[in-house]
Design a protein that fits this description.
The structure holds two protein chains of two kinds.
Chain A: E1 3-10, H1 17-27, H2 33-45, H3 62-67, E2 74-79, E3 83-89, H4 97-106, E4 109-115, H5 122-133, E5 138-144, H6 153-170, E6 174-179, H7 203-209, H8 213-216, E7 222-233, E8 236-242, E9 247-249, E10 253-257, E11 262-270, E12 273-275, E13 277-279, E14 283-288, E15 299-302, E16 307-318, E17 324-325, E18 329-334, E19 337-350, E20 357-358, E21 362-363, E22 368-381, E23 392-397, E24 403-412, H9 416-419, H10 425-432, E25 437-441, H11 450-462, E26 467-470, H12 478-487, E27 491-495, E28 508-510, H13 511-514, H14 522-532
Helix pairs in contact in A: 11-14
Chain B: H1 6-24, E1 28-31, H2 36-49, E2 58-61, H3 68-81, E3 85-88, H4 91-95, H5 104-123, E4 127-129, E5 146-149, E6 177-180, H6 188-198, E7 209-216, E8 219-222, H7 226-231, E9 240-245, E10 258-259, H8 265-273, H9 292-298
Parallel strand pairs in B: 1-2, 1-4, 2-3, 4-6
Antiparallel strand pairs in B: 5-6, 7-8, 7-9, 9-10
Helix pairs in contact in B: 1-2, 6-8
The chains are: A alpha+beta, B alpha/beta.
């Protein structure tokens, strides 16, 4: 039975990567007839006159066709006699780095296009760096457009040296360098007689034969992140998940993390049939010999060397349009665990082109950095280089729900500073799903009555708001109390006398400044405060650190 | 996952996705269209939770123009596996007599796209599994596994959530929902090979058989009931018996058959492996111009 190779192609707009993949599919006669017809048809209205434009085969989205570039990952499928392939064709432009990272996270091997007439460019370095960050171990550098330099060996050898330097800098394990021409079809599927000096494999042959599992086999022990507890009836309790490393057999003793409890495996279901043994990659449901404390997000393991910690260092790629600032809180997804956490510090930013480290206070979209992250309770962690699945994470914005960053675990149990876990006003505010506000009412002087303010609070509570009607006694330091309540994320209705001084607090508003025209009824007050305390995306939680 | 065959790898990936959604989504549903992809997806759902039943219902959007054999198969499968099978029809569309002969593209919109939106809203489903595959069409090649829909149930292809490794972000605001495609990475060939390997039951329409047919706009259309006879004023001599089968199933007046002798699973797989025409050639709606599927999808079509 064939196995499956997932690979990514990276190159910029003019490197011809869509053409290369189109050609790979076309030469292998893998384009279905009607797609081929559509391709010929599209070519008539396409950019390059009569000849077939292979790249049109891949660019799917209307927006992309209009712009003539590839902005999102396109997945392509083909099979040869030896193997099944999934190709992620990704955009090369820096603006779409995050899309490229998506494709890279999916792949076992990267084909990086280098323009033979230009050599290794800053973008080549960026592409290789992203692929390495996302965990790719196998690289093919396709030195394309050899036809444009007259298939000249000397120029190719010079590029080979540049790639060698890049390989060293990024610590790439496996690197192949192949001279090709995508438009002419040289060394793509057939050996080119125009480059007799090249005696290595052609691209397709290499893709068919490379073994990308050699590196992955090095993961230690057995572990299974629990996706779900399967409980169809009182007598059956099973733990479902995919084996991420090693194998497990009936009778093995496994440890549940984070509880540390041990039990024997009594039954193994691989999908819907019972087996004595199961191994890496298989979807299983395990039954254990005794009751242990296991739920989604826990890990069953044996001799894996996974750690428990509530702080760690990660290398992240920031993907959100809004810049990242220190102190921002997130939902962190790691393995099957989802947990609140905070980005407690930026150790340094890595220049995506040169690899240089530089200090940073914030991160812009598509920047890479080493950061410290603290979570609210200890979770099961692995170094990305040792345990893929427990070393991959997402940072999810708690307000927009966007996937704001992806990252990999680089060290566990970070520096003391990072271990200081603290909740911020923004976290409390997000939890209450409201913006804190202190509204100062002056009954009799601003058109309100004490009764209307009280009833307004009642209406706010009924709408799900967290409020406090606060009428301080004489001599009370109400300014200080109000500041604490605001930091707790509460909506304060502060009732003061007409002559009391204004409150010097960022969250404080005089009702007279907020009041709509007309009668100041309880209903009008409540409506105005509801509107004023809506949590919106413009509210920047990063700014709220104590 | 080096040692798994490519079918085992695809199966493992799909089961992982299905379990993630069941664990994270508030109210999931699995869309069931009765065809071969749905058959595989249902089978994967049964495997994913074994010995438990899938912890979500199945939903069939019935345009009222499906082949009769499809409806019978649907009910038999639900009964056999003890599944909750919901059916939804756009009653307003039925009252207005919307049909594939007089209403063209708006028929698909009203009876399929709008009906789906109505059904998802009616039940308040937050996640819907669909059997879509990326190899089906160019714009699908770029869809995520977790495809986000805003409160108007529309897809924004320019603003898809990044999707890394197998860490899926299923967080939603009120009113929003996701479509989930566990078969994203399967090809038509994989589907057939898997059906053969697992010996899955499929609708009889996939097997070649003598069937009453007419030719319409270059497609072989099966005369499944009297409605088409009345609509097109067919005379008995217009209808011929031809040995045909279907590579894809939908509404019978819009689904072209192919002439074939493949009447066993092995023969179908053989025929498909050597196919030189991709399966969507026999779906009439896809030929309305470049990008028609993407437009439809932005409006909420699966």
């Amino acid at each position: 039975m064939n196995d499956l190779l997932k690979f990514i192609t990276c190159g910029s707009v003019d490197d011809g990567k869509s053409t290369l993949i189109g050609h790979l599919l076309y030469d292998a006669k893998l384009i279905y007839a009607d797609q081929k017809e559509a391709l010929l048809l599209d070519s008539k209205v396409g950019s390059r006159g009569g000849a077939i434009d292979y790249s049109l085969l891949l660019d799917g989205l209307l927006a992309e066709r209009e712009q003539g570039i590839t902005i999102d990952v396109a997945y392509r499928y083909f099979t040869t006699d030896r193997r099944s392939f999934i190709c992620a064709d990704t955009p090369g432009h820096e603006e779409y780095t995050r899309n490229m990272a998506c494709g890279a996270s999916f792949a076992d091997l990267a084909i990086i296009l280098v323009d033979a007439s230009k050599g290794v460019l800053t973008q080549t370095r960026r592409h290789a760096r992203i692929c390495a960050l996302m965990g790719i171990r196998y690289f093919v550098f396709a030195v394309n457009k050899m036809d444009l330099i007259g298939y000249d060996e000397a120029q190719f050898r010079a590029i080979e040296v540049e790639i060698g330097a890049l390989r060293q800098e990024l610590g790439l394990e496996s690197v192949r360098i192949i001279p090709v021409s995508a438009t002419e079809g040289d060394n793509i599927t057939k050996r080119s007689d125009r480059m007799p000096w090249y005696d290595g494999e052609v691209l397709q042959e290499y893709l068919e034969t490379v073994d990308v599992t050699a590196g992955a086999a090095a993961e230690k022990g057995f572990y299974l992140p629990v996706q779900r507890v399967c409980r169809p009836n009182q007598s059956f309790r099973g733990f479902a998940g995919q084996i991420e490393s090693g194998s497990v057999a009936v009778g093995d003793t496994v440890t549940a993390l984070p509880s540390g409890e041990q039990a024997e495996v009594t039954h193994i279901f691989v999908a819907d049939h019972e087996e004595k043994r199961a191994s890496v990659g298989q979807p299983v449901t395990l039954q254990l010999s005794r009751e242990v404390d296991v739920s989604r997000g826990c890990v069953l393991e044996r001799e894996s060397g996974l750690s428990l910690a509530d702080a760690f260092e990660a290398e992240i790629l920031w993907m959100d349009d809004v810049p990242l600032t220190v102190g921002k809180n997130f939902l962190i997804k790691l393995g099957t665990k989802k947990i609140p956490g905070i980005l407690s510090g930026i150790a340094y930013r890595t220049d995506i082109h040169t690899g240089e480290h530089e200090p940073a206070e914030r991160l812009e979209k598509n920047e890479i950095a080493h950061v410290t992250i603290a979570v609210t309770e200890p979770i099961v962690l692995g170094l990305f280089d040792e345990h893929r699945t427990q070393g991959e994470l997402l940072l999810i914005d708690r307000i927009t729900n966007n996937t704001a960053a992806c990252g990999v675990v680089r060290s566990i149990g970070a520096a003391e500073d990072a271990a200081r876990v603290y909740a911020t006003p923004a976290m409390r505010s997000a939890l209450n799903w409201q913006k804190p506000l202190v509204t100062v009412f002056r009954p009799g002087a601003d058109g309100t009555t004490a009764r209307a303010v009280a009833e307004a609070e009642y209406r706010l509570v009924q709408s799900g708001r967290h409020t406090y009607l606060y009428a301080p006694a004489a001599g009370e330091d109400y300014a200080r109390t109000a500041a604490h309540l605001a930091a707790a994320g509460v909506i304060v209705l502060l009732v003061l006398g007409a002559d009391a001084p204004r409150l010097d607090l960022p969250e404080a508003r005089e009702w007279s400044a907020l009041a709509p025209a007309g009668e100041q009824t309880a209903q009008a007050i409540a409506a105005r405060l509801l509107q004023e305390t809506l949590l919106d995306a413009a509210f920047a939680p990063g700014q709220w650190v104590i | 996952m080096g040692n798994l065959s490519h079918l085992d790898a695809l199966e493992a990936e799909a089961i992982y996705i299905i379990r993630e959604v069941a664990a994270e989504a508030e109210k999931p549903v699995m869309l069931y269209s009765i065809g071969k992809d749905s058959t595989v997806m249902m089978h994967l759902a049964l495997k994913a939770f074994y010995p438990e039943k899938p912890p979500f219902p199945f939903l069939h959007i019935n345009t009222t123009w499906k082949f009769h054999e499809m409806i019978a198969f649907r009910d038999a499968q639900a009964k056999k596996y003890g599944l909750t099978m919901l059916e939804y029809k756009n009653e307003e569309g039925i009252r207005e007599g919307i049909n594939p002969f007089d209403h063209g593209a708006s028929y698909t919109d009203i009876m399929k796209t709008q009906a789906l939106k109505q059904a998802l809203t009616k039940y308040g489903f937050t996640a819907a599994f669909g059997g879509g595959r990326r190899d089906e069409e160019k714009s699908r090649a770029k869809e995520r596994v977790f495809s986000f829909r805003n409160a108007a149930q529309a897809w924004d292809p320019k603003n898809q959530r990044p999707e890394m490794w197998k860490l899926y972000n299923a967080e939603l605001h009120k009113g929003e929902s996701i479509r989930v495609f566990p078969l994203s990475n399967w090809t038509e060939k994989d589907i057939w090979q898997y059906i053969r390997r697992e010996q899955l039951e499929i609708v009889s329409l996939y097997f070649a058989k003598e069937r009453p047919c007419i030719e319409r706009d270059g497609n072989i259309i099966m005369v499944d009931d009297d409605r088409i006879v009345k609509k097109l004023h067919l005379r008995p001599e217009d209808i011929q018996q031809r040995k045909i089968r279907f590579r894809t199933l939908g509404c019978y007046p819009l689904t072209g058959g192919v002439e074939s002798d493949a009447d066993t699973l092995d023969a179908i797989v053989e025929e498909t492996l050597g196919a030189v025409e991709s399966e969507r050639t026999s779906r009439v709606i896809d030929h309305e111009g470049a990008g028609s599927m993407e437009r439809r999808k932005r409006e909420g079509y699966f």
